[in-house]
Amino acid sequence: MEARLVACVQITGSITSIYRWKGKVENAQEWLCLIKTQDDLFKKVEAAIKKMHPYETPEIIAVPIVKGSKEYLNWLDDETVNKIKL
To answer: What residues does 61 pair with on adjacent strands?
Structure first.
């Protein structure tokens, strides 16, 4: 947030995740974070998550914004370091 790489982070949890890791089925309590940012900031956000996250391979995926209100997308732009006014 302070680096202005993201406009908003929503944290949902705790959730139970069951997954395979290194040949074993794992069961962990985790938190789902929805991070609102711009496409061209993905690499910087990814690097920041990897630096802070305790997992060797944290789940980092991007879901595109297919549509959004002009006001919301302008807010997203205003709150991040890149300025791409719509």
So the answer is: none
Q: What is the pLDDT of residues 57-75, one digit of tens each?
A: 999 999 989 999 999 999 9
Residues constituting the chain:
86
pLDDT digits (tens, 9 = 90+) for 38-59: 999 999 999 999 999 999 999 9
- Residues whose CB is less than 8 angstroms from the CB of residue 24 and which lie 6 or more positions away in sequence, other chains included: none
Q: Is 35 helix (H, G, I), strand (E, B) or coil?
A: strand
**71-84 burial string, b = 16+ CB within 10 Å, else e?**
eebeebbeebeeee
Question: What phi, psi does 9 have (nearest 5°)?
Answer: -130, 120
Using DSSP bridges, classify how beta strands 8-21 and 24-36 pair: parallel, antiparallel or unpaired: antiparallel
